[in-house]
Amino acid sequence: MAVIVWNVVFDHVIVVAGREYVRAAVVATTHGSPYAREDDWMRPALPRAFWSATAAAAAILVVGVLALQLAIRQPRGLSRRPEGLPS
Hints:
mainly alpha
C-alpha cells in the first residue's frame, strides 16, 4: 500500500506543478511577459514531490508496523470463539 501511495502522491505533485506551469505560460503569453521557463517550475517540484510522497508512505508504514505489533501482542484467547457458539 505504501508503494502505491508513494507513486500516487509523487504523480499528483508533478501534475499540479505542470498545470501551474501551463497557467503561468499562458499568462506570460497573453500579457506579453517574459517567457515562463519549464525548468523554473518543474525543477523545484521534483524534491517537493519526492519528500511529500516519502512522508505519506512513511506514515502508512509506521501505522502498519504499529498495527502489526499490536496484533502480535494481543493474547491468543481474545481471538478465539468461545466454546458452545455456533460457527
